[in-house]
Design goal:
alpha+beta, WH_DNA-bd_sf, Arc Repressor Mutant, subunit A, 14 strands, single chain, 5-stranded antiparallel sheet, Alpha-Beta Plaits, about 325 residues, 2 domains
Length: about 325
């Protein structure tokens, strides 16, 4: 029987190949694995690809790369169910640990989401994102063309990195504040004030990021906020010890001064924050998410593919859109 660690890497390689609309080579796979927390070089990737070829899960296309077979898709759907359920929170916790952004010096790595749009739609996308910046995390973005050496971008597409709200968790942890990501959800807003979560999904026990689920459901109404001040946005909630609430508020203020905002609510005593349950002795913190700016783009009928909590990125390289 193959080592479980190798099996996890094989599954992750199949995920990467399956997410691409063209054959993928070992170098691109190795780069993407590194973004996902797997330190595997090209030679090791080729070894794993040979295993997948032998099992009939992938097909080689000369020097172009591999594509996933129907059998591979079926295996990807069924394999390692328990592992997949923990994959989202494990990946988030890894990126939280790797976040080293300092809001005082305004230097370091932040967690980003990566979204892809057609080149022809980019200018309209940028305009819509600017209009929704108040419901996002930061006005800064990273832009990736199809020849990018950092991430794989399909021909005819543009990659857009937005600051992810899980960055807050990384900053809190780096300053000695234990933090637990709890829920992602749809938050109702009335008269530009957050009211209550209409739906919540826990980050634990799910194989798909909750924010991605709500994006796929097209659950937002950011356009309503832009037009009337009332609508729905994506937000998430994390909890910290009540004793750390004061320090956390100071950090959020420092983050706001470095163009990273989005704090919507912090509750210390009621047992819930905007309808999301909070454990005894903990403070609940709700923030908007970076992909709200892309949600409004989708609401206008532009095709967007988004990978929330995608990778870490040097905040200093990101520019105002």
């Amino acid at each position: 029987m193959t080592d479980p660690q190798i099996e996890r890497k094989l599954i992750e390689i199949m995920r990467i190949i399956n997410e691409s609309d063209r054959p993928v080579g070992a170098r691109i796979i190795a780069d993407e694995l590194r973004n996902r927390g797997y330190n595997l070089g090209e030679r090791a990737v080729r070894y794993h690809l040979r295993i997948l070829d032998e099992r009939g899960f992938t097909e080689k296309h000369g020097y172009t790369g591999r594509s996933i077979t129907l059998r591979g898709k079926e295996e990807l759907e069924e394999a390692l169910i328990g592992d997949r359920l923990d994959f989202v929170i494990t990946r988030i916790e890894d990126l939280i640990y790797r976040t080293d952004y300092d809001p005082v010096t305004k230097q370091g790595n932040v967690i980003v989401n990566v979204s892809y749009v057609d080149k022809d739609d980019f200018e309209k996308t940028a305009d819509l994102m600017r209009s929704a910046v108040n419901y996002s995390i930061s006005p800064r973005v990273g832009i990736f063309e199809e020849d990018s050496e950092d991430i794989f971008v399909s021909p005819g597409k543009v990659g857009i990195a937005t600051v992810c709200s899980i960055t807050f968790d990384g900053v809190l942890l780096r300053h000695g504040i234990p933090v637990k990501p709890n829920f992602g959800g749809i938050l109702a807003v009335e008269n530009n004030e957050p009211v209550v979560f209409k739906d919540l999904i826990s980050y634990r026990g799910t194989s798909i990021d909750p924010i991605k689920i709500f994006l796929m459901r097209q659950s937002t109404l950011v356009t309503g906020l832009l037009q009337s001040g009332s609508g729905t946005i994506l937000a998430n909630m994390r909890s910290i010890p009540q004793s750390a609430a004061g320090d956390a508020r100071l950090l959020f203020q420092q983050l706001h001064e470095s163009d990273i905002g989005g704090l919507l609510a912090m509750d210390n005593e009621s047992g819930n924050v905007l309808g999301a349950p909070v454990d005894v002795g903990m403070s609940g913190i709700v923030v908007s998410v970076g992909v709200n700016a892309l949600a409004v783009v989708e609401e206008y009928g532009i095709d967007v593919t988004t990978r929330p909590v995608s990778m870490i990125m040097d905040y200093g390289t990101m520019k105002t859109l």
